[in-house]
Amino acid sequence: MTEQQTAGIHHITAFVQNAQETVDFYAGVLGLRMIKKTINFDAPEVYHLYFGNELGSPGTIITFFPWAHSRKGRIGGGQVGITSYVVPTGSLSFWEERLAQFNIPFEKVTRFSETYLQFADRDGLQLEIVEREEGPRSQWSFGGVPVDRAIKGFGGAVLYSTDPTQTAHLLKQVMGLQKVGQEGAYARFKSTGDLGNMIDLNVSPMASGVGGAGTVHHIAWRAKDDAEHALWRSHVTNHGFHPTPIVDRQYFNAIYFREEGGILFEIATDPPGFSRDEQPEALGEKLMLPEWFEGNRSQIESNLPPIQVRVLEAGKS
Fold it and tell me: What are the VOC domain coordinates in residue numbering (predicted)?
C-alpha cells in the first residue's frame, strides 16, 4: 500500500452568518488578506470568501460560507474544535494588545509548553494564536498589523472526535502524521510541513456537534499536485473510506470523506492557486465566478450583499 504523507492543512472552511462582519474580523482585526471573493458552487446565492497570506498559500487559507439567516451551530465531536494561527516569535504581546483594542475577550492557556491566546470570532468560531519560529512570514500588512507581527498562517488545529482512537489511527496510518506527544486531554500529531502542521486531538470522545454558524464545516489536507492527489484517493479507498470523485474547485481539486470520529476531511491540491484568474496584486477585489456561472453573473451579483475590505477605526490608532 502506498505510503502517503500530507504536508499539513491546506485550508479550513467554516459557516458564518454575516459576510461584512466576517470580512471586518478576518481582514480588519486579524489582518489577513481577502484573497478570493467567489460563491459556493453548490449554492450560488451564498458567498465563498477566502482569507490567507499575500497569495493564499496552502496552510494559510481560511474560507467561509456566510449564510445570513442560518442556524447557530454547536461545536462538538466530529468537528475542528479550535483553529490555531501562528505568529512570529515575540509577537504574542502585540496580539494581546490588539485583541484588547478591539474589545475581543481572550484567555491565555498553555498546551504542550506553548502559550496560546484563545478567543472567538463574531459567530463563536473558536480561534487561538501561538508563537513559533518555523514557517515563512506573511508579506501582507493591513489595518495596523505590521509584517513582522502578522499571522503567518495556521499553526494547526484542535480536533474534537466522537471516536478519538479511530481518529488518531487515521492521522497516523492514513494521513502520515507522526504522534509527537500526549499531555492531559490532548495527543499531538505533526505533519511534514512548516505551517498547518501541529494537530492536537482531544483524546476523550465528545458528543456530536451541530453544524451551523460558528462551526467548521471541514478541514482540508494538502496534496502536492494532481498526480499525488489521485494516489491519495486510492490510498484513502484502500483504507476503507469512501472518498468522493475528484471535484474541480477552480483553485484546487478536492476529494472529501468522513472519518470515523465524524470529522469531514478534504484532500486538496496545492496548485493551481488563487492567481489563476486574478493578478497577484489584485486578489480578492472582484467577484470571480467559474465559467459555468458567468451567464448568470448579474442575477448572482444582485442576490449577494455588498462587502468591502476596510480598515476599522480601532486599527487606525
Answer: 8-132, 153-270
